[in-house]
Design a protein that fits this description.
It is built from 4 helices and 3 strands; from the N terminus they run E-H-H-E-E-H-H. By secondary structure, the chain is mainly alpha-helical. It has a single domain (about 5-95), classed as Orthogonal Bundle (Multidrug-efflux Transporter Regulator, Chain: A, Domain 2), CATH 1.10.1660.10. A 3-stranded antiparallel beta sheet has the order 1-3-2. This is MerR family transcriptional regulator.
Length: about 100
């Protein structure tokens, strides 16, 4: 594991003006995966986009942890449905008459 793969929670707290406990609660609730790297609590860089999404939901909509979990599940489900709709539309397009 390389250092550049992990982002320290302390730095996230500085960037977003949040307490470490907020991220620890997210980890306890299973919304993010916290790792300890070189003695610091960190998140993997691949999770940064999801963390930013969680912070926006929390701040902009004033949603608690349980609500964030519900919103994220609904967004994932919506993305799955949109992908499925796209696949079905592409399959249907194969059978459409190109001369109409």
């Amino acid at each position: 594991m390389r250092n550049k793969e992990f982002f320290p929670l302390v730095r996230l707290c500085e960037l977003y003006d949040l307490e470490v406990t907020f991220f620890e609660e997210l980890g306890d609730f299973g919304l993010i995966d916290l790792k300890v790297y070189q003695g610091q609590q960190c998140i993997h860089q691949d999770a940064l986009q999801e963390v930013e999404r969680i912070i926006r939901i929390h701040r902009d909509l004033h949603v608690n942890l349980e609500g964030i979990d519900v919103v994220l599940n609904m967004l994932r489900r919506q993305e799955e449905l949109e992908a499925r709709l796209l696949r079905l539309s592409n399959k249907l397009r194969r059978y459409e008459d190109p001369f109409q």
